[in-house]
Amino acid sequence: MSGDRALDLPIAEASRLLEKGDISARELVDAALDRIAETDHSIHAFLHVDAQTARAAADRVDRARTITNREPRPPLLGFPYGLKDNISIRGMPLTCGSRILEGYTPPYDATAVTRLREAGAIAIGKTNLDEFAMGSSTEFSAYGPTRNPRDITRVPGGSSGGSGAAVAAGQVPFALGSDTGGSVRLPASFCGVVGLKPTYGRISRYGLAAYGSSLDQIGPLARTVDDCAAVYRAIAGLDPFDSTTLEDPVNPGDEDPDDLRGLRIGLPIEYFDRGIAPGVGAAIRACVDRLAGLGAEVEEVSLPHTRFALAAYYVIAPAEASANLARYDGVKYGLSRRECSDVVEMVASTRALGFGPEVKRRIMLGTFALSSGYYDAYYGRAQRVREFVRRDFSHVFERVDVLATPTCPTVAFRLGERLDDPYAMYLADVLTVTVNCAGVPALVVPCGESEGLPVGLQLIGPHLGENTLFRVGRATERVARR
What we know:
There is one protein chain. Helices cover 40% and strands 13% of the residues. It is of the alpha/beta class and 482 residues long. Strand 10 and strand 11 (453-460) form a beta hairpin.
């Protein structure tokens, strides 16, 4: 079998071919590089591709594979992948989609990258993103927008749009993104792939450029639920470099996706009355009805503080961003310092030139929310709302095992359509930010189409409920194909 055909197979199937020697890691990597060369001129999913290093890594895998030993085969051995360009990997540029980090190459690997290397995966390049992960469309990159492979006049979602587009275009079997308020899940929904935002603390943030530290999580995007689960299990777990990671073991889950008897699915009424496009709502409900046909019990539930979550999120996230982005001053790394008369003028000049308009907007919002006299009125109140949102989820998961919702009120919108309307852009996150506020996991799985474009079903689970999400996600894949 050719590497090009193998590149389109699920990871488990391609892995068996690699193990038998029917294909090689070099053939897989070459196929990915060829596909990027053929398609990326119209999609712009990648900001940087390191073909030489990827080929060298593939050759090492192939040489090692020819040596007979009894060692268990790493789960992702030989598979190329892309990673969002806010995740550090030694030897590749790190731009965060911003001019302010121009010329910076980190000297260390993120923990997720280290674990993927240990699992045998091969990093092929860095994917495009909204600058510093601030956006919902991947139009706020300093290096130009990414386009949706399903319709290049549409956005791929954001901020991990490059990773979502790369997987949807078949350039790589999987990619890493980050999710602060929906940035893995929106691209998954808009591009028709699978995306996971894990439980907060499940995957180390070491090596991830910080946006909102209490909200950020690295998450995988892949073509299938099983592929997404394989990547998740390879990178999840306790990390001494990140004190927020959890000690709980990462266990496999192999429940039968054709039998959902005893599983309770909740439909939050607040997620279906917030301007949901008719075609999106119809696709979600049709999919849930099919899940009920596999034995799941479906009932309506309420998360009453959902209506306050978006406002709270857009106080908390910019507040944390204003602190995290203070380090980009032109002194330590990135954009060369401006020649100015004093340090204050130098920092101001560097940041004015290096940051784009959306990043500046959020820094100013966050600085204002944290300023003297406004802290309690804005940031303090937003944190109290966040606690109410967290309690809503805690209470509802006493009644149901998983929640099923739309991911976004609409399908992928057109490039440029919301660029001049920040409020409309922020509304793309209205159904996703609650998950980050509560720290619970969520999985997006393609479930149908509206207007000829993908619709993603968002499955939300309780704390450490990833295996339940994978079980229902596999069932969703089965019923969506019927």
